[in-house]
Model the fold of this input.
Amino acid sequence: MTPTSGLRAQTIFMSPGTMIGVAIVAPSLSYVLFTSVHGPDFSLAAFDAVLTSALFRQSMVTTLYIAGLSSLLSLLLGFIVALHLAGQPARRRAFLMVLVLLPFWTSVLVKCFAFTVILGREGIINSFLSWIFATKIQIQLIFNLVGLLVGMTSYQVPLIVLPVLASLLAIDGAIYRAASIMGAKPARIFWTVTVPMSLPGVLAGLMSIFVMSLGAFVIPALLGGPRDFMLSNLVDFYNRQVLDWPKASAISVILFGIVIAFATPAALWRRRKF
Amino acid sequence: MHNATDLGGQVAHAIALKGISKTYGPVTALHPTDLSVEKGEFLTLLGPSGSGKTTLLNLIAGATGPTTGTILLDGCDITRMPPRERGIGMVFQNYALMPHMNVFDNVAYPLRARHQPANTIRAKVTEALDRVGLRGFENRKPRQLSGGQQQRVGIARCIVYSPTIILMDEPLGALDKNLREQMQGEIKRLHKDLKTTVIYVTHDQEEAFNMSDRICLMSTGQIAQLGTPDELYFEPVNEFVADFVGESNLIEGKVTAANTVMTSDGLTLVVCSTEGHAIGSLVKVLVRPEKIEMIGRSAPTVTSVRDNACAGTVAQTSFVGGMTRIAVRCDGGRILRIKTVSSRASDCAPAGLPVTVSWAASDTVVLKS
Done:
């Protein structure tokens, strides 16, 4: 493909996205930006207040921590799933892909409710354990970090399986056969062929789920504990509880900035040619 | 011929396949086959696609297990041994190099898998790269090399650990014609220098003839004929072999007496031998196009009188470089293909020219019909 025709193709594929962006997202974002600097006059007071507040800094650390931890966990789980899928015949793989994507297509609210049924004090897991050990067991599995991570990973795993699977399927089967006939054991083949050759998909997937989970709101609100307060929840807090819209907007703008800071290098890296 | 090493009266084959077969569900990829390859031999598995040659190679490599039979490598049963323990080398058609590793790391891969010390690895990799003429390319990635260079890396990676057998799966299939011929020469030279046993798969008859000590011609999952290039060309055992290796004229007829075949249109042919064909049985007489001599009928003198002759006219002449192909329609309507060394167009036989074609009995082979 010539550079010009490539560019033209890109424009065609990008145009619906661009239209939505210009018509819907940009005005709302501009309004948020406007609110963040609009007191009685133009002022950066909201930013100043937010950046010096301990609550904001705490939430920011929590956000990065939860997003990072859940993304790594999802990578671990997703990689295993992708490895298994890559080893299946095409027809079976298509069926298993539907199973992977089914929860992804389910509303996040429905999933969170399902997790409260499974993980709750009287939930399926605790009831089962109580029955096994014939004593009342009530392990705290939701409204804390455990519940939050379960919710976050269930949301992220399907999203990382796709790019990792694509990378794994792109590896020429002859390379595995070559490595094996040259005397490499499965563990060596995994570390010298599978891992390095799936790295592009792994990094792309990791970046996208990390960036997406930075803005997580419903899952920490419904499954997390009081200490798992992420930036989106803080926005909600200032917006609805305190009614301090400039501060809520200022946090939104900062969160947006963080997302851009992580997404830009990821997008650039993905364009890199091998 | 090749003399196998004699070990206390026992012939030690580099590899021996006994009753090996492979079926995939209802499909038989390889019928029970026996094949042994001697040490230092260059054996080519030749055949059209789907003939079972790649299946046979994969069975030796251990990429797939046989349905029946055993495989002996140097006398040891390796039928159920995983590929990594067989110590076999393999060169792939699409090179199968590690794209994320440079040339050095690619060639060092089998040595690192064997946990050899770093200085040994450096010395062996350097030697292997020397042999394939790629010294100085250590830090290049495969994508920075041409197809021919990538396959040299593939070969270096294979010879670096001195495997007892090297399998080559259409290694030159992805290269253009000139490069292919050059690489054939290099592989032959490497084989001579290293004295390794090579099993080579190709569907290119010329390549097989140029390189092999012996050729195993395969068809529909079976060995059609196993022999030297000479034997395959001059003593094909059936029509398939005759047709696959080179061009051929096949004349149908009936054996009427010893060394005599009569065609349906009454032509009597003197042949080399009818041994193994009963009188009265239907046969096909093979004559190679380059063995048929053509003389213009208006020529004042007949230069040679050969065993078989028939009159006809030139139907078509095609000039294809060094050789000219001529189709002659014999008086009975039969078309005979003739191949002669090209001469200038002015000396060429024009279509419609009445000619006499002739060939010697010693240039015929009688095949079962």
User: Anything to note?
Assistant: Residues 94 and 174 of chain B are 7 Å apart (CA to CA). Confidence is low (pLDDT under 50) at residues 1-9 of chain B. Residues 177-194 of chain B form the longest helix (18 residues). Chain B touches chain A at residues 61-63, 82-90, 92, 94, 96-100, 109-110, 113-114, 143, 157, 161 (CB under 8 Å).
